[in-house]
Write a structure and sequence with these properties.
Length: about 425
């Protein structure tokens, strides 16, 4: 690709990486940390049963069977090492970075603002700006302050006002340096895992509650957006939606109907509620689903360490579909692969960049690409063994090392950005 003259992205295109506070910072105290303490032992015990058919299981067995794997603890210590981590962005010629502000740090008790934490995030954003890196701020990336969770979190509509107040506080502190704001990361994934699948706190399994939380999250997004704009009128706001591209594997009527119903349920059910109050669409793309009849049968030619079917090229069709339907500029707010050995990440990137480029040639307006993730990080209920980082992190020493694919990616960015 480096020598491929066909790839020419606009100079203003945002090339970057993404993280979230709880997955990298270390030292948090929120609803997740409480749950990690309660669940670590049972997650470790279940690991062999759940993961032993995954491709890299023999490598990860020991770590995945250890309770400490499921406790975020120091994570990758990004809270203290952020400057070193921003150096990595510069090394990869990136001009943007997506991160989240941890609500439980800023408002550890209801209505009590922690000035030192707000100052920390201010310096954090200033440091990015100093390096010419566009900050992309996320307000809610799966973790809630304990006090907010105790009040029922997003299950209660009236609690939305607490989130809006937090958004207002963060914007009044950081807003003058931030142009792009994501209110909520993956509302459908958060609601699905926590209230329907029951695998994330508060571990509920109810379709009624799932739908209720989704409605409240849509309301939270809309209300927060108004407040964000009242503080900072030039802010560009969106959610980050996890989009699966769903397609029929044959032209049987049943396959086609199931594919379009599934696509609607996964994407459009929620996006319809919020897109009118989005300035752009933040899209997280990881996989697609091929449907035969009413079942998902992916080609499974190649799987990531998490057993996810790899179809990076389908990002093109996901982008075209979302653009046709919503006519909003799209930022890819996450995209990446768990690949500890770094054998699949470069081909993944090559196909992804080609897919984005093709979509742009078909007039889809794509404004940026954030790779998940800058660093190896705490992968929620899986803990720390899945390795998504462009930089590998040695959890013992906290040493960061850019993987070969990341070095390649950095050179590619330099080459394909229009002079
Ligand atoms: C989430 C991240 C997560 C990544 C990889 C996305 O669903 O926003 O927090 O680490 O996918 O699973």
């Amino acid at each position: 690709m480096q020598n491929n003259p066909k790839f020419n992205f606009p100079k203003s295109f945002l090339w970057g990486a993404a993280t979230s506070a709880h997955q990298v910072e270390g030292g948090n105290h929120n609803q997740w940390t409480v749950w990690e303490q309660e669940s670590a032992r049972s997650l470790a015990t279940q690991a062999a049963h759940k993961f032993d058919d995954l491709p890299g299981w023999s490598r990860n067995k020991r770590l995945a069977s250890t309770p400490a794997n499921y406790v975020s603890a120091r994570a990758v210590d990004h809270y203290r090492r952020y400057k070193e981590d921003f150096d990595l962005l510069e090394k990869m010629n990136m001009n943007s970075f997506r991160f989240s502000v941890e609500w439980s740090r800023v408002e550890p008790e209801e209505g009590v603002w922690n000035a030192a934490e707000l100052a920390h995030y201010k310096s954090y954003v200033t440091e990015l700006r100093k390096r010419g890196i566009e900050p992309i701020l996320t307000l809610f990336h799966f973790t809630l302050p304990v006090w907010f969770a105790k009040k029922g979190g997003f299950l209660k509509r009236k609690n939305v006002d607490y989130f809006v107040r937090f958004a207002e506080k963060v914007m009044s502190e950081l807003g003058s340096s931030v142009r792009f704001v994501i209110t909520i990361n993956e509302p459908t994934v958060y609601a699905g895992e926590s209230f329907k699948q029951g695998v994330w706190p508060p571990n509920l399994q109810s379709t009624r509650l799932l739908l209720k939380v989704l409605r409240n999250l849509a309301y939270a997004h809309k209300k927060a957006t108004k407040t964000i704009k009242s503080v900072q009128s030039r802010a560009k706001v969106s959610i980050a939606h996890n989009s699966t591209y769903v397609y029929a594997g044959d032209d049987a009527v049943l396959s086609r109907i199931s594919a379009s119903v599934t696509q609607w349920a996964l994407d459009d059910y929620f996006l319809r509620k919020v897109y009118k109050s989005c300035d752009f669409l933040g899209i997280n793309y990881y996989f697609s689903s091929r449907i035969y009849g009413y079942r998902i049968h992916n080609p499974n030619r190649q799987l990531s360490d998490l057993g996810w079917d790899l179809a990076p090229e389908n990002i093109e069709y996901a982008l075209v579909r979302l653009w046709d339907k919503y006519k909003l500029p799209i930022m890819i707010t996450e995209n990446g692969i768990a690949d500890e050995m770094d054998e699949m990440r470069k081909p993944w990137l090559v196909k992804t960049i080609a897919g984005i480029h093709n979509a742009m040639k078909s007039d889809v307006k794509v404004i940026g690409y954030m790779h998940w993730s800058l660093l190896d990080n705490f992968e929620w209920a899986y803990g720390r063994w899945p390795r998504f980082g462009l930089a590998a992190v040695d959890y013992r020493t906290q040493k960061r090392t850019l993987r070969p694919s990341a070095i390649w990616f950095g050179k590619a960015i330099k080459h394909i950005r229009k002079k």
